[in-house]
Amino acid sequence: MALHPCQECGHQVSDRATACPDCGAPIRAAGSGHGQPSIEEWALSQLKAGSARRPVVERIVGQEGMPRSDADALVKRLESALVPERPAYLVRVAAGIGIAGLILLLVFVLMRLIV
Fold it and tell me: Which residues of 35-53 are buried (b: 16+ CB within 10 A; e: fewer)?
């Protein structure tokens, strides 16, 4: 395993890494035949690394010449893909609470009708 400086921030990065652990920039292996990562791949790596939306949008606008509204829409779409899904057990708990609430409401209505 060899260490090489990141092209973005200069941080030492393993040659086996796919992204810089410091700035999140994608790392491509020398001679891999792959060109620069697409703007979507780069933006996604930045968002995964914890970068805020605004600097990512600004860089896309500045370097790619993309209109700000398009860049913002792209970053918002990528951010929405990063939102974790709710665990299934939470969905079941919420459904159970809803059913229990309905049962209590029915009991209350029946008690009012009887009395």
Answer: eebebeebbbbbbeeebeb
